[in-house]
Design goal:
This protein is of the alpha/beta class. The protein has helices at residues 37-45, 60-68, 79-85, 93-105, 117-149, 161-169, 175-207, 210-215, 223-233, 244-248, 272-288, 290-300, 307-328, and strands at 2-8, 12-18, 24-31, 50-55, 73-77, 253-255, 263-266. The termini are far apart.
């Protein structure tokens, strides 16, 4: 068995191969487009049984499928955790490839879950919609700033059809302000159309997924939150414990307990899109479900300064409930 470590870049990849005794057999730099890499690795393996490891990057899914056809096992390493394991002031592509190969030989690679291609495409569309919503938000904020600059009071429902019509009819003191208004208004309308197109695609995917329907039985959890959680959880059984999902989505506190137990801010690891959607859904669940509200109030202890702490703890609690629901195939049941 050979152990192949790859430090992958778009046009250059460094490869290190260890034999069954952990001795370096080959080390070389492969230059050329990424799609040539699988063929080069197959040639370098010389027909031997091999295991391949590389760090997760933009093309990790495509590489995983290509390497599966030639290797006994393909392991995709978590970039951040690999750096924590191998802290060194000496860093190069050749050194990184050798580190990965050694971790693979020792069976100590911090691996990431690699979903199937349809799930990766689903995640990609969720993230694309989020980026488009962010662009629309920036355009809306710029319009509000323009109104404040010229001391023009806006109606409460500015982004409704009636509010947009009012905004289009506002008279401005100079032509440049009117032009900025027109361009920003066009941006908002353009992004509205793009978001609607993305949501139609996402709705079609969600309609055929029982997990999304299950999560939507939670009060306050809408289609966007349910699909995002389901897409990133993918396989509920891959989490050993329900508490692990909080770590995966970065909703657990940092800890420094070398001398005494100390907790800091949440780690913010994992997909930020899901974390934000779950926190937004948690506010709705607090308003709509007595059991969730009771949990929130118990953590807050009547102290308004603990509101953020209680909100994050409740979001973590809600995520654990979501994972348990997906594992058991059961709809939401309020404990109140």
């Amino acid at each position: 068995m050979w152990y192949v470590g790859l430090d992958v870049h778009w046009t250059t990849t460094t490869m290190c191969i260890l034999d069954e005794n952990g001795k370096k057999v080959k080390s070389r730099t492969v230059r050329g487009p990424l799609w040539h890499l699988p063929g080069v690795v197959r040639e370098a393996a010389e027909g031997r049984r091999c295991v391949i490891v590389y760090e997760a990057s933009g093309s990790y899914g495509w590489l995983y499928e290509q390497f599966q056809a030639m290797a006994e096992q393909v392991v995709v390493a978590h970039p951040g955790q690999v750096r924590l394991i191998f802290r060194s002031k000496r860093k190069s592509d050749r050194i990184d490839a050798e580190k990965l190969a050694k971790l693979l030989y020792l069976d100590e690679v911090p691996a990431v879950h690699v979903p199937q291609a349809p799930v990766r495409a689903w995640r990609g569309m969720i993230e694309h919609r989020k980026r488009t919503v962010d662009k629309r938000t920036r355009a809306k904020n710029a319009l509000r700033a323009l109104l404040r600059t010229h001391v023009i009071e806006a109606p409460k429902n500015l982004w409704s059809r009636k509010g947009m019509a009012w905004l289009a009819a506002v008279e401005w003191p100079d032509a440049s302000a009117a032009l900025r208004r027109d361009m920003l208004l066009e941006d908002v309308q353009h992004f509205n159309r793009q978001i609607a197109r993305a949501e139609r695609v996402l709705d079609r995917v969600a309609e055929g997924h029982p997990g999304v329907a299950l999560l939507r039985t939670i009060p306050g959890v809408g289609p966007r939150t349910a699909e995002a959680v389901m897409a990133y959880v993918d396989e509920p059984r891959r989490f050993r414990r329900t508490k692990s999902i909080g770590t995966y989505f970065g909703l657990v506190p940092c800890e420094d307990s070398s001398n005494q137990q100390r907790f800091g801010h949440i780690t913010r690891e994992g997909p930020a899109t899901v974390r934000r959607l779950v926190v937004e859904a948690t506010w709705q669940a607090i308003r709509r479900d007595a059991a969730v509200r009771a949990y929130f109030e118990r953590i807050r202890r009547g102290d308004r300064e603990r509101t953020k702490i209680a909100l994050v703890a409740t979001a973590h609690h809600l995520l654990r409930a979501m994972l348990a629901m997906l594992r058991r195939g059961q709809a939401w049941r309020s404990a109140a």
